[in-house]
Specification:
It is built from 13 helices and ten strands. It is α/β, with parallel strands linked by helices. α1 links the parallel β1 and β2.
Length: 316
């Protein structure tokens, strides 16, 4: 039997904690056997959760005997865990234990140094902070989970379910994973990644910047064929100077910013109108429905049709 230790720390998010307990704990094989033994362990006998108090069944010593450790996120918690917890996680990793995090649990793993040099993800709201706090980690904010072999990280709490199903498939095969998905009433695989849930906002521009009127002009003329030359001319600069200063002010290139602006326009139209793909492609400035579908899926992770089915406003 495979032992899964779920690490509970103060302010643990209830959903994050329940995800591995439910997905691994409810699974049964064809002959009725439990393939996983789930244990909740903590540095203290009682842990104060986000909305409840938890009595842990095991202490940190249980991490040593686990086959898999799952680290849930903590409410508002990006502070490093205690040195005792960090030592226990590092020791488990050195012993070959598989370690996974749910949502903001990636901050706990990053604090141990175990994510250094690896790709990782977290909830998209915390992705920028994770990258700033731990520059040695390659943060990927657009995926549901990242599997590095021994270490896995997932995005939001629901993405933790995707990650747990993935681990079950690795351990027991697709049939067992499909059974676990049916018990959780979720698809075995979700189309697209976390990018479809990200609120794509304008990159920050300092108030009063010379680029504010240029960006407003771009937003007002997305349906036109906007070239770098046209944008530079609007800003009264050469293309080279415009491109350099644009990156300094926004952190991205003019053409990348333009693509994101067009995607934001398309998302709004998909959510709030009945317009067909041809009309949306024209109004958002993609040129053709084919170009619209290809670029939208590249940025958002799903097709326009799938995005509309998921996020369409009832009021529309």
């Amino acid at each position: 039997m495979h032992t899964v230790a779920v690490l509970a720390l103060d302010d643990v998010v209830a959903f994050d904690l329940a995800t591995p307990i439910e997905v691994f704990g409810r699974l049964r094989l064809a002959d009725g056997r439990r393939p996983y033994r789930v244990r909740v362990c903590a540095p203290t006998p009682t842990v104060r959760g986000e909305v409840l108090t938890i009595t842990a069944t095991e202490g940190l010593e249980a991490l040593r005997g686990a086959d898999t450790i799952v680290v849930p996120g903590c409410a508002g918690g990006v502070e490093p865990p205690s040195e005792e917890v960090r030592r226990a996680l590092r020791a488990a990793h050195a012993a070959g234990t598989r370690i996974a995090s749910v949502c903001a649990g990636s901050f706990i793993l990053a604090a141990t140094g175990l994510l250094d040099g690896l790709s990782a993800t977290t909830h998209w709201l915390g992705a920028e902070m994770l990258a700033e706090m731990y520059p040695a980690v390659d943060v990927r904010p657009d995926v549901l989970y990242v599997d590095n072999g021994q270490i896995l990280t997932s995005a939001g709490a629901a993405a933790g379910i995707d990650m747990c199903l993935h681990m079950i498939r690795r351990d027991l095969g697709s049939a067992a994973a499909a059974d676990a998905a049916r018990l959780a009433v979720v698809p075995l695989e979700r189309e697209g990644g976390q990018a479809q849930y990200v609120a794509h906002t304008r990159p920050p521009v300092p108030r009063g910047s010379a680029f504010e009127p240029v960006l407003a002009w771009i937003e007002d003329h997305l349906d036109r064929d906007l070239t770098l030359a046209a944008m530079a001319a609007r800003g009264g600069m050469s293309e080279r100077t415009f491109g350099r200063r644009f990156r300094e002010h926004t952190g991205t290139t003019p053409l990348q910013w333009l693509l994101r602006a067009r995607v934001r326009r398309a998302q709004y139209l998909l959510e709030n109108t009945d317009y067909g793909v041809e009309r949306i492609a024209a109004q958002a400035g993609f040129g053709s429905p084919t170009a619209f579908r290809e670029r939208f899926k590249r940025v958002v992770g799903v097709s326009p049709q799938t995005y509309r089915a998921t996020f369409r406003s009832r009021a529309a």
